[in-house]
């Protein structure tokens, strides 16, 4: 079999990516927007008790929350397929993050700039793990509440960490953000080699 035919039938390289962030920032929406399969979600209704714990004031239409993970996949090209794992956003589900992130190449940390405090645990987690990540500020209704430089400064992330804006509802925007994570992970690997 000629080499180019062997390459054509080779399945794409599987790459695990994590989509993380605080409660209600758009993680499930981002995975659903870009997934080429019907995403697997573990959504549960927000109860009165949970509503007393989780701040839903900026997301009043939110009726469910992820309690384990979201899963979707995206084939970027014939050689590369992303398997996306979305984490739950509440601290009380943080015990699952080590299992969800195991073997991941990198992470997209989704941020609602109206509630920066909610993303500190995710940023801290990936900094402690030494895992490449990018910060994606979700532009709810097209609004970027704070300039990206101000978000970078407030989060105190390293200069090499990409900080970008995206729309979690838009397939192309989410895809482009995931590509930024891949490029960042590759650049770190090359620098370490």
* Class from helix and strand fractions: alpha/beta
Q: What is the count of structural domains? A: 1
How much strand content do the residues show? 15-25%
In the predicted model, the low-confidence regions spanning at least 5 consecutive residues are none
**N-end to C-end Cα span:** 34 Å
According to CATH, the homologous superfamily is: P-loop containing nucleotide triphosphate hydrolases
Tally of individual helices: 7
By CATH, the architecture is named: 3-Layer(aba) Sandwich
Task: State the strand order across the main sheet.
Answer: 4-5-1-6-7-8
User: What is the typical, i.e. mean, pLDDT?
Assistant: 83
Mind telling me the CATH class?
Answer: Alpha Beta
Structure write-up:
The structure is a single chain. The chain is α/β, with parallel strands linked by helices and 193 residues long. The chain has a single domain, classed as 3-Layer(aba) Sandwich (Rossmann fold), CATH 3.40.50.300. Helix content is 34%, strand content 24%. It has helices at residues 3-9, 27-34, 48-53, 97-101, 120-129, 148-155, 171-192; strands at 13-21, 43-45, 64-66, 70-77, 80-86, 106-111, 133-138, 163-166. The termini are far apart.
């Amino acid at each position: 079999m000629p080499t180019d035919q062997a390459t054509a039938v080779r399945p794409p390289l599987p790459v695990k990516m994590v989509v993380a962030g605080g409660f209600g920032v758009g993680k499930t929406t981002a995975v659903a927007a870009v997934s080429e399969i019907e995403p697997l979600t573990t959504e549960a209704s927000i109860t009165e008790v949970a509503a007393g714990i989780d701040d839903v004031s900026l997301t009043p239409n939110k009726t469910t929350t992820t309690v384990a993970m979201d899963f979707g996949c995206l084939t970027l090209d014939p050689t590369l397929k992303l398997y996306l794992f979305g984490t739950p956003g509440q601290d009380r589900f943080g015990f699952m993050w080590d299992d969800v992130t195991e073997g991941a190449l990198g992470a997209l940390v989704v941020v609602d700039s109206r509630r920066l405090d909610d993303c500190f645990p995710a940023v801290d987690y990936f900094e402690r793990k030494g895992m490449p990540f990018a910060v994606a500020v979700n532009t709810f209704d097209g609004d970027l509440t704070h300039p990206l430089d101000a978000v970078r400064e407030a989060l105190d992330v390293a200069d090499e960490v990409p900080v970008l804006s995206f729309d979690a509802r838009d397939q192309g925007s989410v895809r482009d953000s995931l590509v930024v994570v891949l490029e960042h992970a590759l650049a770190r690997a090359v620098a370490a080699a």
